[in-house]
Amino acid sequence: MTAQGQSLSSDDYCQMDFRGKLLIIDSNLGDQDVERLKFLCRDHISSRSLERSNSAVDIFDQLMTEELLSEEDTFFLAELLYTIKQNSLLRHLHYTKEQVACLLPTRRKVSLFRNLLYELSEDISSENLKGMTFLLRESIPRVQMTSLSLLSYLEKQDQIDEDNLTLLEDVCKKIAPNLMRKIEKYKREKASQVVTPPSAEETESLPQGKEELFSPSDIKISLELQEGSQQDEHAGSNGETATPVSVELLGASVETLTSKSSTKETAVYRMDRNHRGFCVVVNNHRFTSMSERPGTHKDAECLRRVFEWLGFSVHVYVDVTKVHLMQVLQKYQSHPGHADGDCFVFCVLTHGEFGAIYSSDGDLIPIREILSHFTAQQCPGLAHKPKLFFIQACQGEEIQPSVSIEADAVNPELKAPLLKDSIPVEADFLLGLATVPGYVSFRHVKEGSWYIQSLYNHLKDLVPREDILSILTAVNNDVSRQVDKRGSKKQMPQPAFTLRKKVVFPVPQEELLL
């Protein structure tokens, strides 16, 4: 019980567990490690705050204050531990040395220059240090210095910086020529980090106008799927084929994936900023008043794995109530990290109805409400950047039957609602629904859902050859070919988008670890 007589919430216990892990890491770090961490954090924490930090815990507190460390995102600390070769402590953050090495090229926060100075300090022997201090005696204080404090002093006195290594090169050439290889490597890496400035097109507003849209064609090819499939919702007894869905967004050019393709060459969104961006996964398995969703953890793990491989900082939230979901949305709506990111991904795995998803405590939340947090007005850091949303949930209770060729609905009077109530009226959004409005989606109790598993497989197989819309077209085709073990139930995903350019993820640095 707390001092106010209230029980600690599950979030409070999770936070205590997280801080407990930080205490364990702190207890395994010595004074030299703390000095190394302080040096590596100089670009992110003020000098005054670092001077007051006497332990690793003090540094962790500063990182959390600067929103560089949290229970959901521990990668910066993992990077720091990896850099100072404390790899055995990575397990407390649920990372391995190999995973950190794989993610570093796209998620590093320690600058190339600071990393160079740290590596040089580790390679300067005691004899080399004596020679360097002798050469620099007129410009450094007459106090005992380590190699790290020497380089740090030169930086503080503006005698060296990321664009001026002349003094450092002169010293290394005279005392430790072998260190020149690291300096030359740094110069090459820095030269390759040329950031392309935003094009004029990137800041243009979405042109007004509407396009003629076409619904997905009915692909009805039956294949066997292994046993164990189940619906995310109880379906109605009478199956009906999906009626065509047209999309209008009050003047914004919104398309489904089966719109007419243009022969005009399409521009590509930038993917060369400091980091790829955030990927949020809401994974609801247990509900207070609804059935559980076995197999969903397989989906969540696949999403985490593939989007980390693509360079995203992935945060998974399990069994999210409505209040918690609103907190998550507010957090990422105002997250300062969007400014340096390329893209944003938000995935929801849960029960649902048309145009809405269920929280773990049974509240129905409109999809539009979720997306509205990330418009340019509400989230300026994501303006002109692609925002991708993937929803694995039923969108109704009807079941799509498996037939040879059937273009007409069973009930021609039934009109599927428009998707305009789900997507914001502005550019740069993509909404991928597991199924067309009004119908159920399917999930294997062990292998995960048809839609998410297909998305996972096609991302890892087609990046970087294809853009995201081409990948989702392949997902549509794949899912449409799947049927349950009796051959009577099918599913067709429904993407809609207001993207102005192609979304092409760069070549991942490493192979995806399966």
From TrEMBL:
This is Caspase 10. The keyword Phosphoprotein does not apply. CDD domains: CASc, DED_Caspase_10_r2. Residues 188-211 are annotated as: Disordered. The keyword Endoplasmic reticulum does not apply. Belongs to the peptidase C14A family. It comes from the Eukaryota. It comes from Sus scrofa. GO terms for molecular function: cysteine-type endopeptidase activity. Residues 419-505 form the Caspase family p10 domain. GO terms for cellular component: cytoplasm. Coiled coil: none annotated. GO terms for biological process: apoptotic process; protein maturation; proteolysis; regulation of apoptotic process. Residues 17-95, 112-185 form the DED domain. PROSITE patterns: CASPASE_CYS (PS01122), CASPASE_HIS (PS01121), CASPASE_P10 (PS50207), CASPASE_P20 (PS50208), DED (PS50168). Keywords: Apoptosis, Hydrolase, Protease, Repeat, Thiol protease, Zymogen. Residues 275-398 form the Caspase family p20 domain. The gene is CASP10.
